[in-house]
Amino acid sequence: MFANLFINPFIQLFWLLVLVLFAEIFMFFVTRTLFNNLIMALRHKGLPHPIPDEIKQLSEQMGVKLKEFRVAERFDNAYTNGNDVVIGDLLLQGLKKDELLAVIAHEFAHIKENHLPIRFVSIIPLFLIANASFNHLPSLLQSIAALAYLMVVMIPFNWYLEIRADRLASKYVDASHLSSALTVLNGGRDLKEGSESHPPIRTRIQLLAKNQ
Ligand SMILES: [Zn+2]
């Protein structure tokens, strides 16, 4: 009876589907943790926009070279690819001018401290270390275990970089503007919920309150 569970072709197909589903969910979280900015850059490229004077001034104050300021349609977030800052039109509509500058200051902080290249470069040695430490496992399991390990390690690292960017931004803009911008950015979602790439908004607001 028990052996039948694995011999029956329908049940084998069921387990195969479960495995594929698990692999997809797993890879979804891995890519979201490791390549969040890359995913956003592919999905929301945006169109170049003249750089507003206030944003130019802010970039000069922060010592950041901004190549392009782009606005992406039907997008409710902001990101940087290391040279450009892209902001979604949906977010733009919901922000006051000071809040927009606060969001830009956060993105400039990522550029100023090279967070994007640091994240990419750190993935390689971390993956190699993880891969070597799981070398007793069969090769497929070894890669899965190494990716899972990498994901677990990268989450607090991603969060740390976000908190650093908030802290640096609040040296150039009022922290209260960044806090209110984060609330707009969060939409109706739970403030206590973090993601693979960002700490919970409530934590970020609490930390920003200390900078005021
Ligand atoms: Zn950020």
Helix content: 55-70%
- Elements, N to C (H/E): HHHEHEEEHHHHHH
Number of strands: 4
Q: What composes the largest sheet?
A: 4 strands, mixed
Which ligands accompany this protein?
zinc ion
Shape from CA axes? elongated
Strand content: 5-15%
What average pLDDT do the residues reach? 88
User: What is the CA–CA distance across the termini?
Assistant: 67 Å
Report the total helices. 10
Strand order of the largest sheet: 1-2-4-3
Backbone structural class: alpha+beta
CA-based gyration radius: 21 Å
Unreliable runs: none
Number of individual domains: 1
Description:
The chain has a 4-stranded mixed β-sheet with strand order 1-2-4-3, with helices on both faces. It has helices spanning 4-7, 9-34, 36-43, 53-62, 89-94, 97-112, 115-133, 139-169, 175-186, 201-211; strands at residues 47-49, 69-72, 78-80, 85-88. With 212 residues, it is an alpha+beta fold. The protein is elongated. The model has no long low-confidence stretch (mean pLDDT 88). The chain has one domain. Strand 3 and strand 4 (85-88) form a beta hairpin. The chain has 10 helices and 4 strands. The structure holds zinc ion (ZN). Residues 106, 110, 162, 165 line the site of zinc ion (ZN).
Short description:
With 212 residues, the chain is an alpha+beta fold.
Write the layout of secondary structure elements.
Blueprint: H1 4-7, H2 9-34, H3 36-43, E1 47-49, H4 53-62, E2 69-72, E3 78-80, E4 85-88, H5 89-94, H6 97-112, H7 115-133, H8 139-169, H9 175-186, H10 201-211
Parallel strand pairs: 2-4
Antiparallel strand pairs: 1-2, 3-4
Bound molecules: zinc ion (ZN).
